[in-house]
TrEMBL record:
Residue ranges of domain Cytochrome oxidase subunit II copper A binding in the record: 555-651
Family: Belongs to the NosZ family. In the C-terminal section; belongs to the cytochrome c oxidase subunit 2 family.
Required cofactor names: Cu cation; Ca(2+)
Name of the molecule in the record: Nitrous-oxide reductase
Pfam annotation, one family: nos_propeller_2
Keywords: Calcium, Copper, Metal-binding, Oxidoreductase, Periplasm, Signal
Assembly, per entry: Homodimer.
Top-tier EC class: oxidoreductase
Listed InterPro entries: CcO_II-like_C, Cupredoxin, EfeO_Cupredoxin, N2O_reductase_N, N2OR_C, NO_Rdtase, Nos_propeller, NOS_propeller_2
Protein task: Nitrous-oxide reductase is part of a bacterial respiratory system which is activated under anaerobic conditions in the presence of nitrate or nitrous oxide.
Amino acid sequence: MNEDAKMNQVDAMPDPSRRKFLNSAALAGLAGAGLSVGLSACNKESAPAPSAAPAAAPAAAPKAAASDLHLHMKPGELDTYYGVWSGGHSGECRILGLPSGREIKRIPTFNVDCMSGWGITNESKKIIGTRPDGRLKYMTGDTHHIHGSYTDGTFNGKYFWVNDKIHGRLGRIRGDIFECDAITELPNIQGFHGIFPDKRDPVDPAINYTTRVFCGNEFHIPQPNDGRDLDDPTKYFCLFTCVDAETMEVRWQAKIDGNMDLVATSYDGRFAASNQYNTEGGARYEDMMSAEMDACVFFDVARVEQAIKDGKFMTIGSSKVPVVDGTKAANTDPKTALTGYVPVPKNPHGVNASPDGKYFICSGKLSPTCTVIELAKVADWFDGKLDDIRKAVVAEVEVGLGPLHTTFDGRGNAFTTLFLDSQIVKWNVDKAIQFFGGDKNAQYVVDRIDVHYQPGHINASMGETKEADGQFLAVGCKFSKDRFLPVGPMHPENEQLIDIRGEKMVLLADHPVHPEPHDFIIVKRDIIKTKQVGTLDDHPLAVKDAKDSGVFRDGNKVTVKIASLAPAYTLREFELKVGDEVTLILTNLDKVEDLSHGFAIPKYDINFVVNPQETKSVTFKADKPGVFWAYCTHFCHALHLEMRSRMIVRP
Ligand code: CUK
Ligand code: CUA
Ligand code: CA
């Protein structure tokens, strides 16, 4: 590290030599012994002395005023923000109340959940997708990134989208009921990673809300992946995908060079971008880290869509989705280019849009730098006014080891997680630009704080919007180690909350979370408008009147219609015959908020919940004779235990 850079270490950092770009040799070392070498190194050797991070040490915590953020809700008191969380390879999403950190709801999405009946009811199976035999197409999912729909540059609370990395699916959560209402499988994708909704229509600027969701694709595969070109990685490629926000249909895809990671969109609607690692196109581990520079690839969305209108696209395999050519070789003339590749060091991880709309920031991951890309200059390149797209980089400054993700306080400061250093660094974007521009007195690093341990995603309150309010941030720490009571080999993750109102960050709280969320957003509560009681008319199968209940037989096809009205089901018993194909429809006719009923059938492996004024159905084969007491699983009434129905299956 040079003297200038050292000036920007707020607290002296040990072993400054490690802050150079990690080269391939160093990486091979990390790889050879497992990344744990790097991890243990950051906890032991390079952990700053306690004095280096006074804000993190309780004994040395600054005066209480610095941390008087109202954190502990009194009984009955409501949080002021919704935290909308991914659940990682649990396949679900979650809602937290913030700043208390209390988990309020789990939203089954790509997983199966026997509390709600997600993956068990016909309605949820239809959303997840089934095989010809009626079984679920997929039982697993891996959610990483969750983002909300926008109006005028801020969240509107209508939808949230989340990716499934395993099977290449995009899920949508309705903001009024916090349930998944649609899942789309992207064609010809493996390792679907980053997503981001657009914020304004690129073609019709009057449409100042989200109409598209952009999806980055991490793993390159032979296209189509049907057994051809297995041994020729030069034929492998990735696709960037645009999904319609309302219909959830795939609008288009773009073939690109390299692998994609996270996605960001510009506030003016013109650009979507994805940070890239493995621009080398390596199919083997070592090959993916050989180049010093990767890229952030920009898409001029209106141009892509014009190219499709003009018929300049291909299709891949059995997919009908138009695919434009976004490779470098096909986009050499900026004035007609669909894509532009801004060089960024090295295997960057994360791209985040600053709330002023001016910059995208990429974190270096294997480079200790953050790269600031000025969008106006990217636009200049696409308009033929900038000769070299790399000149859109207005700052590239050292921040610490293993920078991954960045958030903002709306006051010009960025907060970047340092995975290897187990820290968050707060840095001023304007000062970084001045420093990079030659003003070596520009002190861009404002503060550092230790976190526990190895942070990935970070997000401040309203941090992904124009209304970033700089109150607090959450940081997803991948390792919790000693922060919670030990529970055997599987530790929870540690989501930490940090007060960012002052110059110095103050660590507020640790929260154990079920493994393993990646990303989350923090939304002011008045943006979210939920309804607590359903509408019968929204459910085509609804049993609208208790008198409509009964067993309706058509040969061996049997429909059982039941309603629940606390504390009883309308059918106290019903009869089936072995061999019947049964569809059981249950409507909850209760209108009282919070009065949900469950329905479990022993030995038939069925359990689901119906909320007030909702209808769910299940289909099963009556293959076991006997008496089966279907019962209410959800405590609803003093007579909850009595709330059951005798299902009789005659041989
Ligand atoms: S990735 Cu997980 S820490 Cu999938 Cu967003 Cu960076
Ligand atoms: Cu109905 Cu418990
Ligand atoms: Ca972990």
